[in-house]
């Protein structure tokens, strides 16, 4: 499985790479044009509860405006332009623009939980999203609200349990079976998170393993050889070309079980 991280880098016909249009409709369209059917994004809610596809808490780093999204009404946020060029998209618009695509959604704040529920109800996109969060309590709340129709990834506590359970079969019961996937970095704070034992343990539990954010083709190759199920990347062209060479590009979509 190939996932375009915030849409990924844009590369023009001359091979010039643009990295400043993350989480824009232009970036997502570029990934879809390459053949990606899984897109990764983040969500924040504005002061009036509108759900935007945006990574940072504030507009400062990536747009031509400043301020915290949670403190601004959508009428103000909508005027911001990413890299001075592109508007911040609404998640609802992204879901509607590419009905054949599945979205991996990172809940960035507690304020985003209920707006996402409303978006899923309006779009009926329950089976097209996988929801995750770096906050275990936030993710647990989302699971309670969204119910079993929505797939979720491991929260940080569940990743730690999965990692521990991979050390010995005796510890395997501490790993939960609710998430459909573990989306993890290679390491965190200098501590290795991913291992072949962890991959095997996750697979025994019916959990897929996706690794983020991997941009070097040589590392992608090693991860695929190790048996990971998905790679989240900015280097969408590089991952696509690698999967084409391995005969694994644009195969039939895998079945994704829901939370049980």
From TrEMBL:
Single Gene Ontology BP annotation: lipid metabolic process
InterPro entries (alphabetical): GP_PDE_dom, PLC-like_Pdiesterase_TIM-brl
SUPFAM superfamilies listed in its UniProt record: PLC-like phosphodiesterases
Domain GP-PDE per the UniProt entry, residue ranges: 1-243
UniProt cross-references to CDD domains, sorted A to Z: GDPD_cytoplasmic_ScUgpQ2_like
Domain of life, per lineage: Bacteria
GO MF annotation: an example: phosphoric diester hydrolase activity
Pfam families (UniProt xref): GDPD
PROSITE patterns membership: GP_PDE
Protein name per its UniProtKB record: Glycerophosphodiester phosphodiesterase
Organism field: Nocardiopsis alba
